[in-house]
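U., I forgot to send this yesterday:
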Amino acid sequence: ATVIALDGNPVPQRFSPDALLLGPGQRMELAIRMPDAEGAVVSLRDVRGTKPKVLATLRAAGRSLKRDIRDVAPLEANPVAEVDLSAAQHISLALSATAENIASDGICGSLGYSFWAINKVPWPGDTPDPTAPLAELKLGRSYVIDMENLTPQSHPMHLHGMSFKVLSSSTRPVQPLISDTYLIQPNEKVSLGFVADNPGDWLLHCHIIEHQKSGMTSYVRVT
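Result:
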């Protein structure tokens, strides 16, 4: 098997899924070369969790076509605008823990208390304008989100309405993937570049729903 796309976008360089970490809300597209023997069974397994699971079982049918997985044609790139790093404005975000009460229901409801925050403010925040956007962006301009995870847990951070390019990580080499979700690891700093090409208010939140509901939620405004 080889990964040909992540989160709906072709990967710059195809790779084996053996060591791939996917967070809630992420998507993976695989090309699979089935065994030559008719009736052979292969399985796709999640081996990283506390209880390893079989995600899918596939059975070879018919005579082998003797194909090579390397012959799978390249996928057409999506029309995602290229970030201009020389002119991009940087937005600093810190993912942190909190222990504050929240006054009203958050997005997707509330647990009645908060554990998580963005820039030390859980949603909705205890600020003069508790539902103000994290940032107000100009339509068509380039931006880089410099995100740091100050917590001991991983967070799949998901941006609605736009796609970003993964530029760099402080902990590991990264491909310049185009995505809308990044699984940031504990103590990792990552830079995500994008063009604000979609007007509106767009959620930015952790895709682990209990993290989202207990504070790690906000949004950006594009005008």
